[in-house]
Amino acid sequence: MALVRRTRILLSVLQELGGDLANRRMQNLLFLYCKENVKRDDYYEFIQFIEGPCSIQAEEDKAFLIRKKVLESSDRWVLASTSFRYAIDLDFFEKIAIQELKNKWTLKSDDDIEQFIAAHYPILRSGTSTPGLYTIGYEGLSPEAYINALLQRGIKLLVDVRKNAFSQKFGFSKSELTRILNRSGIEYRHIPELGIDSDKRQALVLQSDYDSLFKTYVRDTLPKQTESLDHLFNLVVEQQRVAITCFEADPDHCHRSHVAHALKSRADFPYRIEHLMPCNHLKRQKLNTRRY
Question: What is the value of pTM for the model shown?
Answer without folding.
Answer: 0.88
